[in-house]
Amino acid sequence: MDRRMFLKVSGGLILLSACRGKFSLNDKLEISKFPIKIDSNRSLGHLVRSAIQLPVSETLKIETLIVGAGISGLSAACSLRSTDYLVCELDPTLGGTSGATKISGSLYSQGAHYDLAYPNNYGKDGLNLLEQLDIITFNGKKNLWEFQDKKHLISSDNEEKCYDNGKFRSSVLENNELKRNFIDLLKEYDNQFPLPSTLINNKLHHLDHITFFDYLNKYLPIDSHFIEAVDYQMLDDFGGTAQQISALAGIHYYKCRPYYNNTEIELFSPQQGNYYFIQKMMSQIPSDNIKRNHLVFGIKRIGKKWHADILDTRSMIRKEYITNSVIYAGQKHALKYIHPESHAQFSDVTYAPWVVVNIELNDKELKNSKWQNDFLSPDGTFLGFVDSKIQNKKNNRVLTAYYCFPNIHHYIIQDFESSAETLVYETISNMSLYYEEDISKHVKQAHIKLLGHAMPIPHPGYLTKDRTLFKDNLAFAGVDTGRLPLMFDALDSGIQAAKSISS
Ligand SMILES: Cc1cc2nc3c(=O)[nH]c(=O)nc-3n(C[C@H](O)[C@H](O)[C@H](O)COP(=O)(O)OP(=O)(O)OC[C@H]3O[C@@H](n4cnc5c(N)ncnc54)[C@H](O)[C@@H]3O)c2cc1C
């Protein structure tokens, strides 16, 4: 039965009947009140209706408009030849799903939080941009592009620990014969799964037409325990289970880097997570070229120009930008309102909603804490948490928890705006189970980020579908253009969009 059935919150007292592992919460977790900050841009969508009624207050002309300041929008900005462009971002902060939040004066990740060193067969355009941003440098001996800022590397002994329904082990996939057979099975794909995913050879495209589950079931004597662990990993990176994603995506997860070839791959995870990449790109973009709190709510082609409707959500002023080209790096589900003609080619894209919960603790030692603390339990939505002390010893400890919900729950996650306490207390109780001690009395504050359309799920057919990503000087960027939800794919999609505009 779903563990949530037992959970009740009443005035700061949480009752949890489930008892797993050595530590029992013994039905009582007393939690004193602390501040909870919720970040959600749900209400902004509703502003569109009122924006349409407003008169246009100013009309501006620019060469290129970029919609969205996530990794892909900013990498497009860094790659444009002309500086006559403007990036409009609806949020007050930049980064999208690679964003960060300020807690006690320091930035902590509120989304994507790591990347791994890049093999030499990765896309040259992405590698060039990362080199130009002084993020990576080539190590000829290892034939790998490595990170320059070594202080953000996570050592392998601090990397991971996995709580599996009351027991601990060193990684999510249990070390047993089935895992060895699994690794052997995938050997034929060594060096064949580069990033960006657009570089995957056509001869592997048949793997996009079956589910990862069906592929595994065909070749291995899988059991429910193995699938639970694989599902956990697939949800963690792709927002869908092995039954939902394609074999192409699933195999890519295990083969895009030589994880199982005894090769040391640097794991890079600054405290601010992948917002680090956002900061690096921002340092190359003139600040006047970025407009925050600017919602693009319509684009239309008139003659040879694009006319974009924009709402400054702070002043509620409606503006019109007339441009030669547009790079659309926002989520594609919103195209049905913004540019309906383009929506059809993305109508197959389904998104997993995510919720990120940052829990700041007062000074507190935690035994055996790792960078990534995985958590397998009957509630498959909780995907463990990251401990910032492993990233940076000096600042306060923040434990950042991740929840991935089935894609039917886009609107339900907005309910967390009214039930934030339950979510935070449940998170703390899971963390207490993990540490085998009650950490609730050490909590200083919590931040919640609700991400409705967060991660495109690479279901069968998604990665190989033909899409027109450039037409009439309108280019599409972002991981939801038929790519994997990974930093390098986002980065490359922005570069390719900028190239198509510039050529
Ligand atoms: C919780 C979570 C954890 C992740 N962890 C990792 C990780 O550790 N490593 C990794 O490689 N990848 C990770 N990912 C994948 C991550 O999504 C990508 O790496 C990358 O950040 C996606 O960038 P993007 O530019 O494609 O999209 P987004 O980050 O979604 O950016 C789109 C931007 O456009 C803005 N926007 C949308 N519509 C409009 C509009 N109409 N007007 C103005 N602005 C608009 C949005 O506000 C947003 O800022 C994670 C994803 C999630 C959800």
What does this entry look like structurally?
- The protein has 503 residues and is α+β, with helices and mostly antiparallel strands.
- It has a domain at 3-41 and 351-456: Alpha-Beta Complex (Polyamine Oxidase, Chain A, domain 2), CATH 3.90.660.
- The chain is built from 13 helices and 26 strands.
- The protein has helices at 42-53, 71-79, 124-132, 177-185, 212-219, 224-238, 247-255, 275-282, 335-338, 340-343, 388-391, 420-435, 487-502; strands spanning 8-10, 13-15, 29-30, 36-39, 56-67, 85-88, 100-103, 106-109, 115-116, 118-119, 136-139, 144-147, 160-164, 167-169, 267-268, 290-291, 294-302, 305-312, 317-328, 351-361, 372-376, 382-387, 398-404, 443-456, 470-471, 474-476.
- An eight-stranded mixed β-sheet has the order 4-24-20-23-22-21-13-14, with helices on both faces. Strands 5, 6, 16, 17, 18, 19, 25 and 26 form an eight-stranded mixed β-sheet that branches. Strands 1-2-3 form a three-stranded antiparallel β-sheet, covered by helices on one side.
- Helix 2 (71-79) packs parallel to helix 8 (275-282) and helix 5 crosses helix 7.
- The structure holds flavin-adenine dinucleotide.
- Flavin-adenine dinucleotide (FAD) binds next to helix 2, strand 17, strand 20, strand 24 and helix 13.
